[in-house]
Amino acid sequence: MSPIKVLLVDDSPIALELLQRLLRSSSEVEVVGTARNGREALALMPQADPSVICTDLHMSPIDGLELTKEVMAKFPRPILVISNSVQEDDTRNIFGLLQAGAVDIFPKPASGDYTEYERVKDRLLAKIHMLSQVKVKARTAATSVTSQSAGANGHDASTLRAIAIGASTGGPQAIHKILTALPQDLSVPIICAQHIGDGFLTGLISWLKEDSKLNVKVAQIGETPEPKTVYFAPERAHLEFDAEGKFIYSNFTAATGTCPSIDALFRSVARVYGRSSASLLLTGAGTDGVAGTEAIANAGGLTIAQDQSSCLVFGMSKLAIATGSVKHILSLSEIAPFLLSKINSSVRSA
């Protein structure tokens, strides 16, 4: 199997050298070029022909955002933003890169110590491998809703009281598109578990809050979900409910898999809201959310998965669909209108 061709873009000579050293220690990756800014990177593109571009945010001339726009217009490639920019303004800019076409973000070690880079080697290589399989091209939204039966337990729209969303790679962009299409007076709460690098959740929430009409926040222990509000699981804990329907955190361990766990959230939503729940499994790799979707279906809730054509990574939703527990398979552009139709049905039936 041919190695994955990677172009590295960073204005820090130290970071550039450490990343080269790290990636060149793997036979799975070939560093085909390095650049100190977006202008140099664009000049290298025709000859280097990388499979994946790894770029920092702050560079001149041509920063990470402008580079992303140019690449997506002229040389569409999966772009991974590797940055330690965790200030609010910087993280908002990073999510602007995602909106411009970058696929994912990865936290750069804060120090220039190679041992810090070695600690993230396996995760970075896994991320690059996953991105190398992403097809970044214009996607045509489906014109009709595709549904498949989830079994005998059909959902009654008149009972919808909570929507749970799970996402991984490509999730911030997908969630942004959904939330910005929902009205300010949304009559149900939305609870999200998004796999994201440490230090970037605050920026994600700021970006979503700025562009949507809903209140977006990190769920706090002891809170009861309220309408018009979008709650996110914290970065380093799972989000669940206690017996009274209030938020609690549960500790992450290696045995519980990814954090925050989509499965943990969906199972807890199924337990508390039952037939009054809806789950939405979006783009991302892995198995997280598959068992949770089954739990929602078994409780009689509404189960939705993003379709292949609109997923950046058709992994979690693909596996959930394969179990037969997904009731509706929708393109990204269909999801918000579909949810509103179900919520409005609930209001009319109440």
TrEMBL record:
Q: Where is the Response regulatory domain?
A: 5-123
Q: Where is the CheB-type methylesterase domain?
A: 156-346
The answer on whether this UniProt entry bears the keyword Cytoplasm reads yes
Q: Which Pfam families match?
A: CheB_methylest, Response_reg
Where in this protein does the record say 4-aspartylphosphate is found? 56
Enumerate the UniProt keywords alphabetically.
Answer: Chemotaxis, Cytoplasm, Hydrolase, Phosphoprotein
Q: Which reaction does it catalyse?
A: [protein]-L-glutamate 5-O-methyl ester + H2O = L-glutamyl-[protein] + methanol + H(+)
KW Phosphoprotein (keyword) present: yes
Q: Where is the active site?
A: 168, 195, 288
Which GO biological process categories is it annotated with? Answer: chemotaxis
| Protein's UniProt name | protein-glutamate methylesterase
Segments crossing the lipid bilayer = none
Q: Name one GO cellular component term.
A: cytoplasm
